[in-house]
Structures are given as structure tokens and as C-alpha cells.
Fold Type-4 uracil-DNA glycosylase.
Amino acid sequence: MSIPLTRKPKRPPAFQEEHAESSSISSLHDDAKNCERCDLYKDATQIVFGEGRENAKVVLVGEQPGDREDLMGRPFVGPAGRLLDQCLHEADIDRSACYVTNAVKHFKFEQRGRRRLHARPNAGEIKQCAWWLGGELALLKPRLVVALGATALYSLMGRSVQLTKERGRIHTATDGTPVLVTIHPSYLLRIRDRVDKEQQRHSFIKDLQRIVQFLN
């Protein structure tokens, strides 16, 4: 199945000309461990870098690590990550064949008693962390990048592409990399109506199936 690509947008954060450079993903990760490019490092437990095959054809980009990811130091291992795994499986995609990362590498949260509640990264924090995401993409050179949610989409495509209007479509980044637009799995976790949740879950799986269609 042929999937048309749209015009390139203006240069967004992750595809900026200047980004982190290293000889491998592992060495890039080592370089990022002491990152102080924004203030998020002050409260986070640790940096949560991407993980997966360095020859992965597909890179999945989320927003930022959550509470569980911050404690474990791995991306998408909390409730949203487990849901992503289930949906990838139903879309006939092997997560272990992908590289999974986030637009922002430190957990941003608000303390409410003993709980740490997710807080959305601002534009400045996204732009500062694009230094590392840009470095990952430059090393990996994937055939397809999947933007999971609005923060990832902004980091990859700037403000020229809107999630609601372009969901399920594949755009072309400034460096020529195809970017598939879809929601973040945490969105599904917030839906209370059972019917709506199932419909949105089905749509998300259909979006993910475009990965297989594109690669084939």
C-alpha cells in the first residue's frame, strides 16, 4: 500500500542543524547522563534515554518519562508502556525491533503529597532536549519515526503539523525522514467511557498498522 508524504515543514527542534554527536548510541547515552541543559534534571531521579536496536528501522518517540520510567531508568515501562506493547502486538509490530525514546529525557512532575503527577514539558524544555533526540536520530537514521502525542510531534515537526488534523498521516521532516503522526498511549488511559476508549484504541492500532504498510 502506498502512503503519500506531505511537504516538509519549517525546521523543528529535533531536526535542528546542531545536535549532540557521538560514535554510538551507548556513548551518546553516557554523554547525556550529566545533562543540565534545562532545570528538569534537578528533581528527576535520573535521565531516561532511549533504548533498542541501533539498526532499528522504526523509532518511536513519546513525550517524557513518567514516574515508573524515572525510577527504573527505562522508557515506556509504566502503564502507558504496557498499553503500547499490547497495541504494537495487535498491529503485528515487534517492539524489540524498534528503538523507543522520548522527546524529553527527564521526568517533569508536580508533587502532590506522596504522589508525583505528570506535568507537560514547555517549549523551552523540549527545544533544549532536542539536542539529544536529534543526536539519536542522526545515529540511527531510521526509515520511519513515529510521533506519539503532541509533545513528540512538536519536537519532530514544529508547529506546522497539528495532531488532531494529521493523525494517522505520514509527513516528511526537514532532513527527509518520514514521520507518522499519532496519539500517545496515555491518552487512552485517561478515557473513562468504555465505548469511546475501545474506539480510540482501535484507531490507535490502525495508526500503528501504517508502520507495517510503510515498511512494506
